[in-house]
Amino acid sequence: xxxxxxxxxxxxxxxxxxxxxxxxxxxxxxxxxxxxxxxxxxxxxxxxxxxxxxxxxxxxxxxxxxxxxxxxxxxxxxxxxxxxxxxxxxxxxxxxxxxxxxxxxxxxxxxxxxxxxxxxxxxxxxxxxxxxxxxxxxxxxxxxxxxxxxxxxxxxxxxxxxxxxxxxxxxxxxxxxxxxxx
Length: 182
Prior knowledge:
Elements: H1 19-36, H2 40-54, H3 60-74, H4 78-91, H5 96-108, H6 112-125, H7 130-142, H8 146-159, H9 164-177
């Protein structure tokens, strides 16, 4: 059995660069490929590769806490997930994905204001975070701010032109603007 195979969607960064720079280069390349993608399957693979890359960290503690938080989210143990993510954003405030996951948990608990605050933190650290932008669009749409929601989803499409959920949201909101209803 050989070494694990990397997906064709996951680029290699130069091994001589510091880990943070390698991670940034990897994300930059993935986002560049995502913006140029014209194929739904390729887009799906790149979205998944970016999601995996966003979870990467050089800290075993961060990795452990994130894995536990994701597991708690999966079992709907949202209090535990929130406590773990609170700790993560405290010990690693520069990790965009910790803020994003906490935004998700807050949304799941009905705390839209807290979720929006965490989305802002996520986007401050990673402006191309399509998941955070999509979450922002959902919250804005639920609150009745259709024009602002449309802008959030359009930003997602600038990052990921073939992202089906964002395309559907843009179509739905543009139709609503034209008076064709949701």
